[in-house]
Specification:
The chain has a single domain, classed as Hotdog Thioesterase (Thiol Ester Dehydrase, Chain A), CATH 3.10.129. The relative contact order is 0.24. A six-stranded antiparallel beta sheet has the order 1-2-4-5-6-3, with helices on one face. Strand 5 and strand 6 form a beta hairpin. Helix content is about 10%, strand content about 45%. The radius of gyration is 15 Å and the shape is globular.
Length: about 130
């Protein structure tokens, strides 16, 4: 499941990235979350931030051919509902990378208003297939 429609910008130094998710009413999760009151599930907002962070991570030479897996998600905060018609702008920053372990900070906003934020620790693993 891809929750990122477009990457808008990757900084030349590889430290930050900006992505976009157009939230549309035809998303399958809106059928049950919540009937008659569609709200994008928070876990999917976090996943969208993780996916944008993964794109940033995969730009690194030492990440080629590896897969980033989530190890921990911390300091998650939700500040605004995300509903059909919203454009979710996701900004991620690589905080640090040590060997195959790294940490990103993510923020998702709608029309300049913070919707969610989090920090995520990941590990790059070798593909086994």
């Amino acid at each position: 499941m891809i929750l990122v429609d477009r990457i808008l910008n990757i900084a030349e130094d590889g430290a930050t990235i900006k992505g976009l998710k157009n939230v549309t009413f035809n998303e399958s999760f809106f059928q049950g979350h919540y009937p008659g009151f569609p709200v994008m599930p928070g876990v999917l907002i976090v996943e969208a931030m993780a996916q944008v962070g993964a794109v940033l991570t995969m730009q690194r030479d030492d990440a080629r051919g590896r897969i980033p897996l989530i190890g921990a998600i911390d300091d998650v905060k939700f500040r605004r509902m995300v509903v059909p018609g919203d454009q979710l702008i996701i900004d991620c920053q690589l905080i640090w990378m040590r060997g195959s372990i790294g940490r990103i900070k993510g923020q998702a906003s709608v029309e300049g208003e913070l919707a969610a934020s989090m920090e995520l620790t990941f590990k790059l693993v070798e593909r086994e297939f």
